[in-house]
Design a protein that fits this description.
Elements (H helix, E strand, L loop, with lengths): L3 E3 L1 E9 L48 E6 L5 E3 L3 E4 L35 E9 L6 E5 L8 E4 L6 E2 L10 E6 L4 E6 L6 E3 L2 E2 L14 E3 L4 E4 L3 E9 L5 H6 L7 E6 L8 E10 L3 H18 L2 H10 L3 H14 L6 E2 L1 E8 L5 E8 L3 E6 L2 E4 L9 H9 L20 E2 L1 H6 L8 E2 L3 E3 L5 E6 L1 H4 L4 H14 L6 H15 L6 E7 H4 L4
Parallel strand pairs: 2-5, 8-9
Antiparallel strand pairs: 1-3, 2-28, 3-4, 6-7, 6-16, 8-10, 10-11, 11-14, 12-13, 12-15, 15-16, 17-18, 18-19, 18-20, 19-24, 20-21, 21-25, 21-26, 22-23, 22-27, 27-28
Helix pairs in contact: 2-4, 8-9
Length: 512
Amino acid sequence: MAARRALRTFTSRFLPGSNNNLCSSTADEPGIRIDRSITSTRTHRLVDKGEIYPTECHLIEGETHVIDVTNNKTEELHLGSTLKRTAEANETTPDVKHIRRDSGENNHNDCIPMKDIVVGSNLALEVIAGPSHGVNRYLQSGNKSMLPVTLGRVPPSDLVIKDSEVSGKHAQIDWNANTLKWEVVDMGSLNGTFLNSQAVNHPDVGSRHWGEPAELADGDIITLGSSSKFLSYVGLSASDPMIARRTGKKLHMEDVNCCQYPLIGVEKFGLFGIFDGHGGDGAAKAASRILPQNIANILSQQETKERVISFNNASDVLRHAFALTEAALHHQYEGCTATILLIWSDQGEECFVQCANLGDSACIVSVNGETITMTEDHRVISTTERARIAKSGFPLKDGESRICGLNLGRMLGDKFLKEQDLRFSSEPHVSQVIHLTKTCSAFALIASDGLWDVIDTKGVVQLVLEGKQRYNEQKTSAEKVAKHVLSEARRLRTKDNTTVIFVDLDALRRNP
């Protein structure tokens, strides 16, 4: 019988809002110790001035797959699973601000732990035609100091448009808290206001009477007079699933995962990651393709690969890959977190794992019963993130938990916000390197914040151990362990998209 080696892993996703249940997985057998001499966070320079690193970014297809290695031949298997449920028809949500629980706080069945949210929406306006082309403005429904915003040719209009056809006070945009919609209203302009080429001004043009408010949607074109055109970008407040429930809208799955073992084109390396999108799933989908390919491009250069294996540290590779990915993303109003776990083996078949992350998805590695947190929390309320922001020279005020409406200080994409506030960053946290010998026992779990909102690290580890013990003899044990963790998050009524990647590292240590 041919010898066989497989990496036991399973990805499971939960989307509040529907009831589909699709699953697939691969599984095989176990076999792992932590070498503290390798867990330093010290960075080894891999190349001088980054000359070896490629500067081009190439896309790859396939967001979720696992490779089962048999006789040195690889086969790609689709791996994702989505668990969904239908929102209750009569479900009501109190109009209050919910605070996300700290990871160490116990959760009870009658509680609904949720992340810090502000019920509302974001609106970005950009002048795409006319004399003031390029002028833009970002609005938050929950920030009353910003609203309403008036558009006009001269001050005191909030957004001054240098166009002779624009009245001194031409139009006004505001957030309607009753309908939970953005609205534009003509303020009695002389040349009219148009929404998608339809007049919204008072029928008696020139009477100086205000028109009726008109609802704004994403992608609408507002025209003042005949030449000044605004493009509107409307989205839910970042990390705000409750708006969808209150308005009856479907909460879209914005989590995307990536599982590659071995890393395409690079032997002895594997990559697992979760990208949690906000404002849409575009940035998450793009990053899930571009980032793995950038890492593969860098490691495909033999000198770089040999340095990583020699020093047992991939810090520079991860940082450079994140920088290339951020440069390749052109998403102005969408962003995403990124949490990836890189796994590799040296010539002696010793295994090493290292993590890099932006945002609030998290990764843990358990080695011989010791749990190691591989990620850093980049929510604005976290101590480390507030300290980083303070070093920028523009510290947050006491009680301030958001920047431009976002509760994250670091992310990929969101180029418009990064232009508005330089405190946003795309610099990842890079973890220590964990050395896994052939004799120790280990597993890794990566999950988006929907899981950590309702279960702390200790609870997650316990769930994994329960699952491993319960399904140890079953071929699909990895699938069942991941679903076991996810089902507990669902039972505790997580209100956010939730993705879990479970990697049984024991299987990786077995020789073919």
